[in-house]
Amino acid sequence: MTAYFNGRFMDKDEVRISPDDRGFLFSDSLYEVIRYYPGLLFRPEAHIRRLNHGADHLKFACRDFSHLVPVARDLIRQNHLFDQDALVYIQVTRGPAPRNHAFPDPEPEPTVYMCVSSFDPAGKDRQRKTGINAITVPDIRWVRCDMKTTGLTANVLASQQAAEKKAGEAIFVRDGVLMEGTHSNFMAVLDNTVITAPLSNYILGGITRETVLDLCRDLDIRVFQEPVYENRIHLASELLITGTTTEIIPIVTLNTKPVGKGTPGPVAKAIQAAFSSRIQQLQKQHPWFSSMKKGFI
Ligand code: PDD
Predict the structure, then answer these.
(1) Does the Cβ of 48 fall within 6 Å of ligand 1?
(2) pTM (2 d.p.)
(3) Which of 93, 117, 261, 297 has the fewest C-beta atoms under 10 angstroms from its C-beta?
């Protein structure tokens, strides 16, 4: 596979990251995962905006990564993935420097790495139809979850707890409020209204979350961006998670208790259908799609 590393395209196996890299030593580092549907890179500007937000708050030497959008498309083309489902992974770190907690002086050039991989949506498609089991776990993460840093130890541990309980996701609970999953945002349906934690430093502003809330407006589904309280969760008729690889997956049991009827509900199904049509519509509008159909790429 061809990857992109510090301004150059090279074989992924040739990439060499210094053991002094602050991403390796301190997780002083940000990442993004962008979904590629055949012919369509999904909302890359939104992902780059979030990356820039993190780089700004972490005071990285580079705070504008918009030049990476054409690089992502180039990588897809170079790896012959343009007619497939794929994922783009981007990671930027403060760069290599002798180990010292405070920012290095002089500042190193940030390390910039990008790779692509083909993505088989079959597993997620199945989960979208059947729904998943989920568990709740205490939110032991730090309080800047709005930045997509690679410091994911709490997410890794919670995800493993879920796996050991045969659950597909763990939902973090902070002060009695269900915040988000280990790799997804979380929504509840109460009285035909979608309720999801408001944007704050306690959750990641998901690109899929934003798209889903927009689709709810089109579908005339009422949305409240308000805390979802643990002590009211039994009243929810539906629960669901959203994310780049997840798209929209219903939760059918929470901590082994059935949610609503214990099957994917009508609101989740309506949002899933609207999301699929949005993707198809965007695919058709994208110049790559028509070139791909004609066999030009
Ligand atoms: N995770 N919340 C957390 C903690 C996440 O890690 C993610 C995404 C989301 C959903 O965001 P988006 O809709 O922009 O993907 C919410 C990525 C996919 C991952 O870690 O692989």
Answers:
(1) no
(2) 0.96
(3) 261
Give CA angle at 260 (258, 263), nearest 5°: 75
Which of 27, 33, 140 to probe ligand 1 with, by most ligand atoms within 8 A of CB?
33
pLDDT digits (tens, 9 = 90+) for 61-117: 999 999 999 999 999 999 999 999 999 999 999 999 999 999 999 999 999 999 999
The 10s digit of each residue's pLDDT in 183-240 is: 999 999 999 999 999 999 999 999 999 999 999 999 999 999 999 999 999 999 999 9
| CATH architecture, domain defined by 124-282 | Alpha-Beta Barrel (3.20)
77 backbone dihedrals φ, ψ, rounded to 5°: -65, -50
**Which residue is closest in CA terms to ligand 1's atom 4?**
183
Phi and psi dihedrals of 270, rounded to 5? Answer: -65, -40
Contacts of 268 by beta carbon, 8 Å cutoff, 6+ apart: 131, 189, 238, 240, 248, 250
Tell me whether residue 148 is one of the annotated catalytic residues: yes
Q: What's the CATH number of domain 2-120, 3.40.50.10330, 3.40.190.10, 3.30.470.10, 3.30.200.20?
A: 3.30.470.10
Assess whether the C-beta atom of 245 lies below 6 angstroms from ligand 1: yes
- Which residue's CA lies nearest to atom 19 of ligand 1? 183
